[in-house]
């Protein structure tokens, strides 16, 4: 019989005194999405990406502002079309941020605990996801 230690556990837990990061990131995304939408920064007609200007290729985050604006307009499919990885992360931030905000009112915050095995798996999974996302951005000409 094996004993499960804290280092092997994976998941969320509510912790007192923790910083509600997801709530703060969510609030920041809402503010930035609203500002970008009001300023129509997603429709400038030219790219603000210095990587793209230097190489002619989109960076890993090209389309993120347009994805954020589309999410602000509740256009999920449009956001995913702009940058699937960033849009997916922003969409995942919604329930986490809401739960974190509710807990913050009680002086607690959600803490994500990832064990070493899951941490390694997530790091290795991130590489093909980043490559696939970048290939998509190149293919659609972001």
SSE layout:
Blueprint: E1 11-16, H1 21-38, H2 50-55, H3 64-72, H4 76-82, H5 84-104, E2 108-113, H6 116-140
Antiparallel strand pairs: 1-2
Helix pairs in contact: 1-3, 1-5, 3-4, 3-5, 4-5
Description:
With 142 residues, this protein is mainly α. The chain has one domain (15-140). Helix content is 61%, strand content 8%. The chain contains six helices and two strands, in the order E-H-H-H-H-H-E-H. The chain has a two-stranded antiparallel ribbon. The radius of gyration is 18 Å and the shape is globular. The N and C termini lie far apart (53 Å). The model has no long low-confidence stretch (mean pLDDT 83).
Beta-sheet strand percentage?
A: 5-15%
Cα separation of the termini:
53 Å
> Share of helix among residues?
55-70%
Order of helices and strands: EHHHHHEH
Major beta sheet summary: 2 strands, antiparallel
What spatial order of strands do you see in the largest sheet?
1-2
Low-confidence segments:
none
Query: Can you tell me the overall shape?
Result: globular
Structural class: mainly alpha
What quaternary form is this? single chain
Supply the number of structural domains. Answer: 1
Mean of all residue-level pLDDT scores: 83
DSSP strand tally = 2
């Amino acid at each position: 019989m094996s004993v499960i230690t804290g280092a092997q556990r994976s998941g969320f837990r509510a912790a007192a005194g923790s910083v509600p990061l997801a709530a703060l990131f969510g609030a920041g995304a809402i503010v930035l999405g609203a500002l970008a939408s009001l300023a129509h920064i997603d429709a400038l007609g030219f790219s603000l990406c210095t990587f793209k200007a230097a190489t002619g290729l989109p960076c890993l985050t090209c389309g993120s502002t347009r994805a954020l604006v589309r999410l602000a307009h509740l256009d999920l499919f449009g956001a995913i079309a702009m940058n699937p990885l960033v849009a997916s992360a922003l969409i995942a931030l919604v329930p986490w941020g809401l739960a974190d905000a509710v807990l913050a009112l009680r002086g607690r915050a959600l803490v994500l605990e990832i064990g070493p095995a899951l941490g390694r798996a997530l790091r290795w999974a991130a590489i093909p996801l980043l490559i696939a996302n970048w290939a998509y951005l190149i293919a659609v000409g972001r």
